[in-house]
Design a protein that fits this description.
Layout: H1 3-37, H2 41-62, H3 68-95, H4 100-112, H5 117-129, H6 135-142, H7 152-168, H8 175-186, H9 197-209, H10 217-224, H11 239-248, H12 252-267, H13 274-287, H14 297-317, E1 327-329, E2 335-337, E3 345-351, H15 356-372, E4 377-383, H16 388-398, E5 404-406, H17 415-418, E6 426-430, E7 436-441, H18 446-457, H19 469-472, E8 492-493, E9 501-508, E10 514-521, E11 531-537, H20 552-560, E12 568-571, H21 586-599, E13 602-612, H22 614-625, E14 632-636, E15 653-658, H23 666-678, E16 683-688, H24 696-699, H25 703-711
Parallel strand pairs: 3-4, 4-5, 8-9, 11-12, 11-13, 13-14, 14-15, 15-16
Antiparallel strand pairs: 1-2, 3-6, 6-7, 9-10, 10-12
Helix pairs in contact: 2-3, 2-4, 3-4, 4-5, 4-6, 5-7, 6-8, 7-8, 7-9, 8-9, 8-10, 9-11, 10-12, 11-12, 12-13, 12-14, 13-14
């Protein structure tokens, strides 16, 4: 190539490259926004504000553990950011009228800073825009807003106008999505008595226009109380809406949500609807097994777990169902059937002589029979003692006037299995027509039980006496003094010769490391008299290495005890993980216990094991690995492996659980207790109605629990 041509070619390349660079620079923004981002410059600017807001709030949250000056500086930065972000969002809204960015910025400011001048201004502008809203723009912008319960009143006027706009453009492709999103902002909390009229309007729109839409799963979740499937009281009027959705909708996730929501709403309808609720939950599990591969398969699996747990509760309590017939033999071997008592209100009590609360309840049950009379009220027992002679002796010594079935039927089956009994005691109250009115896993309050009986047998015009004084006190909450809610300080003292109370200790491990723990030594401790002991395993919230913050659940009950608590009590602390032996810190707990046994006079035949939550799981696990060590176990609100129960079936067990626990479902405790019973174990079980995860404040303040523990010895059932 000639030299001149070469120079021209190079010049052309350089000029072309320069033009390409300049053009790319000028066009990159539109190309990126159009083909990669999918939005406008205004959308991008708004997203940057949101991301910066998230970053600063996270930074502020981290500063809570810093010094006071650092926290104050972070607070000032956040306040300055509020002013800057509000200003930038309102500028974007002003510069981009009628766009998604305008609506998004106004919603963001109104939601994030509702009490500021900017927040109030943004709400006013949204109120003016809503009657002529661009359905698509609002549907895109509204998805990221989640109003708190306190904010519902602020959003109601906007949603009312927005709903009117949707009616005008009901055929818009985004109308169903926008309607459902609008419902999010006016859905009340679960404690509300009724939904606001704006939510009712949203629900009616969904029923009349969008029942077949794939965008309405969230509405089903709201009225059905998903994912926990605890339908709020205000959700019950929307049962027809859910049925309309199931009749019209073919989307799998919407049908999954609506089906579980309907079962939840029906279950909330009272005792009479429990059989229908059971059929609906069973139908849900048959249709949605969690095996279909689609975008919501993970959620479907979670819903399935929830449905199985609730179905276990329905089957266990059987409220509203006809009581199954019992045809067997009594303790004397004579034929006996439950139908013989038809026409009377009947209390069926599953009991055993080894069941401590069962035996404690007999005087109260005799008082009920005497009060209501045998003409209209009867008690029938189902006894679980392996040797009927033991039960007959107890009946004779306590002068029990009612008959009891043997739990094992003549055909080899079990009445307890037929009735889905988990542990003992379990009571069922049945009306004169054979319908189950109430079920208790553990002894109920006498006033509650007496009131239910009285309501069913009182004749018209008959005067009803108030509950007797001994019946008015709930047995499940009987304590050894003090209130379960009392905030009693627990002081941990330094280790020293003769120290009593909560004593700080250090275990020097074989690997050269150290582990801090606490041991409670009774004030009347006497080395000449070996003391019973308890090993306590804390929950996951107390994981650490400080050697102090893990003792609370049981230590509070000990601090409230009238007089010296009679057990040496050992409090190991897990630095991480869990209490499982081997993979967890179960071996550490055993090492700490052995350290205490070396230093103090403890009766090795009277060492009990207990724990809460993660510690409840650890109690089941350590019982399976070291069954020979324990005089008894007391797991609280923790599940385990049912396949292991045969290893510790001869260890006495009393398990506790809150019926409303959303962290550890009650079905997990019932599963363990039921498996233990079926393996021949002596499983006492108490489930507290209306109690959530913290059932330990109720359990550890029961004097009868520690009375029972004090009577247990290793190797003796």
């Amino acid at each position: 190539m000639p030299e001149r041509s070469k120079r021209r070619w190079l010049s052309g390349v350089l000029i072309g490259s320069g033009l390409l660079i300049v053009g790319g620079y000028l066009l990159w923004g539109p190309i990126f926004l159009t083909f990669f981002y999918g939005g406008t410059r205004a959308d991008w600017a708004f997203q940057e504000v949101q991301e910066e807001d998230v970053r600063l709030r996270r930074s502020h949250a981290r500063q809570r553990l810093s010094s006071a000056s650092d926290r104050e500086a972070a607070k000032r930065r956040l306040a300055a950011w509020q002013e800057e972000a509000s200003r930038r969002c309102l500028e974007i809204a002003d510069q981009n009228p009628g766009t998604r960015a305008e609506v998004g910025c106004l919603l963001f400011v109104a939601d994030r800073w509702p009490d500021s001048a900017e927040g109030r201004s943004a709400r006013d502008r949204l109120l003016r825009l809503a009657p002529a809203a661009d359905i698509g723009a609002w549907a895109q912008a509204l998805g990221g807003i989640r109003a708190s319960d306190a904010d519902i009143g602020r959003w109601r006027p906007i949603i009312a106008r927005l709903t009117g706009r949707v009616r005008e453009q009901a055929g818009h492709p985004d109308a169903a999505r926008l309607t459902c999103q609008a419902g999010n902002l006016v859905a009340p909390d679960e404690a509300a008595e009724a939904a606001p009229e704006e939510f009712v309007a949203v629900a009616d729109l969904i029923r009349s226009h969008y029942a077949a839409s794939p965008d309405i799963a969230n509405f089903c979740e709201q009225v059905g109380g998903l994912p926990s499937a605890r339908a709020p009281g205000w959700g019950r009027p929307f049962e027809p809406h859910l049925r309309a959705i199931l009749a019209a909708n073919r989307d799998r996730f919407v049908r999954c949500s609506a089906s579980l929501a309907l079962a939840s709403v029906v279950r909330a309808g009272g005792v009479g609807r429990q059989p229908e609720a059971r059929r609906l939950f069973e139908g849900f599990l048959a249709e949605f097994d969690g095996k279909a591969a689609y975008h919501a398969s993970g959620i479907e699996q979670v819903y399935g777990d929830t449905a199985r747990q609730i179905l276990d509760t329905i089957r266990t309590h059987a409220l509203g169902a006809s009581a199954p017939e019992i045809a067997g033999v009594d303790l004397e071997g004579r034929p006996l059937s439950l139908s013989e008592y038809r026409g009377k209100v009947v209390l069926v009590t599953f009991w055993a002589t080894w069941c401590f609360p069962c035996m404690k309840a007999i005087p109260h049950e005799k008082a009920l029979l005497e009060r209501f009379g045998p003409e209209r009220f009867a008690i029938v027992g189902v006894n679980a003692d392996e040797d009927p002679a033991i039960a007959r002796d107890a009946v004779a010594s306590l002068d029990v006037p009612w008959r009891s079935f043997r739990v094992k039927k003549p055909d080899g089956g079990s009445i307890a299995d037929d009735w889905h009994v988990a542990g003992y005691p379990t009571l069922y109250l049945i009306d004169a027509d054979g319908v189950i009115l109430g079920t208790w896993l553990g002894m109920p309050a006498q006033s509650e039980l007496a009131g239910m009986i009285e309501n069913r047998i009182a004749r018209p015009g008959e005067k009803r006496d108030p509950p007797a004084a001994d019946e008015a006190a709930p047995r499940e909450t009987a304590t050894n003094g003090g209130s379960a809610a009392a905030n009693v300080p627990v002081e941990v003292v330094a280790d020293s010769p003769g120290a009593t109370g909560f004593v700080a200790k250090v275990l020097r491990r074989t690997d050269g490391g150290e582990s801090r723990y606490v041991v409670y030594i009774p004030g009347d401790y006497d080395a000449a008299r070996p003391s019973p002991a308890i090993l306590f395993l804390h929950g996951s919230g107390a994981i650490g290495t400080d050697g102090r913050g893990h003792i609370g659940a049981l230590a509070k009950a000990i601090a409230r005890w009238d007089g010296p608590f009679p057990f040496v009590t050992v409090f190991p602390q897990a630095p991480s993980g869990d209490w499982r032996p081997g993979s967890g810190h179960g071996d550490l707990a055993i090492a700490v216990l052995d350290d205490v046994l070396r230093q103090y006079s403890v009766d090795a035949d009277r060492v009990a094991l207990t724990g809460v939550s993660m510690g409840g799981e650890g109690t089941w696990a350590l019982a399976a690995v070291y069954p020979e060590r324990w005089s008894a176990i007391v797991p609280l609100c923790g599940g385990g492996d049912p396949k292991t129960v045969a290893r510790f079936a001869r260890v006495p067990c009393w398990s506790f659980q809150g019926a409303d626990d959303r962290m550890i479902p009650p079905s997990l405790s019932r599963e363990m207790v039921r498996a233990l019973r079926q393996a021949g174990g002596r499983s006492i079980y108490t489930e507290f109605p209306g109690v959530g995860h913290n059932c330990w404040d109720r359990a550890y303040t029961r004097a009868d629990l520690f009375e029972w523990l004090g009577q247990r010895r290793r190797g003796s059932r």
